[in-house]
Amino acid sequence: MKIQFLTSKKSWLTKEKKKFILLSLKKFTKRARFITNYKKLNKNYDVTIIISYYDIIKPNYLSFSKYNLVAHESDLPSGRGHSPLYWQILRSQKKITTTLFECSKNVDTGPYYYKKKFSYNENLLYHEIKELQFFNSYELIIKFLKYYKKNKKAPPSKKQNGKASYFKKLTKKDSKINIYKSLKSQFNRLRTVDNDNFPAFFLYKKRKFILKIFNSK
After folding, report:
1. Cβ neighbours of residue 209 under 8 Å, at least 6 residues apart?
2. Peptide bond just before 77 cis, omega within 30 deg
3. DSSP assigned state of 157
4. Are 51 and 11 in contact (CB under 8 A)?
5. Coil/strand/helix, residue 207
6. pLDDT > 90: what percent of the chain?
């Protein structure tokens, strides 16, 4: 089995996480690699795993591998689109479904292989949430690879059923704090901001002020 990961250069998939993945995949394959440009996808690979990739992939490149996997943090078809994990946390959802599905030319519409609900504690901050997101996705990917290795084929897939809904892309404007509301009522917003790339902020007397939040431990 040959496995390739497609991820953006500025993704949350750090060097440490990539190293962890490559080490863990040794029991499945001797051929695993990471790339950051979909045009470098190799036709000789069995599985392509698309994770934290922000560019649009031209449909003809999706035929390169036998399987093209995406892990998405919503109970598809509900919650298609951008940043589903954070929109659900902003809505105070404590358990969030991760769906492992087959990438298709239309956004988040492909048949799915696995779904599983995961808990997100209400006091976790951005970097801690990203850690859980990574390991939850990783768990479903490994489950797929174990099945593939044992059966020489992918697990059975299912068609998405139900009413579709879509999340819009989070922007820096979504990190705005309302100074007239309590911090408690806005904590979900505070814990989904990135201190470096899109920190929380508020406006006061025609000036913009930046807020950064850290765990004291």
Report:
1. 201, 202, 203
2. yes
3. -
4. yes
5. strand
6. 75
How many whole angstroms separate alpha carbon 144 and alpha carbon 155?
Answer: 7
Label the pairing between strands 31-35 and 47-50.
unpaired
The residues with which 207 forms a beta bridge, in sequence order, are 204
Q: What are the tens digits of pLDDT across the range 77-108?
A: 999 999 999 999 999 998 999 999 999 988 89
- What is the residue type of 214? F
Sign, Cα dihedral of 182, 184, 185, 186: positive
To 10 degrees, what angle do helices 15-24 and 126-151 make?
A: 20
- Is the pLDDT at 61 greater than 90, yes or no? no
Question: How does DSSP classify residue 158?
Answer: B
For residue 114, give the nearest of 74, 84, 151, 158 by alpha carbon: 158
**CA 71/CA 84 separation, integer angstroms:** 11
Spell out the alpha helix ranges (H) of the chain.
15-24, 84-90, 126-151, 187-190
Nearest to 71 by CA among 158, 10, 139: 139
Model confidence pLDDT, tens digit, residues 116-167: 999 988 999 999 999 999 999 999 999 999 999 999 999 999 999 999 999 9
Amino acid at 107: V
172-208 pLDDT, tens per residue? 999 999 999 999 999 999 999 999 989 999 999 999 9
Q: Which amino acid is at 166?
A: Y
Q: Cα(175)–Cα(198) distance, rounded to whole angstroms? A: 7
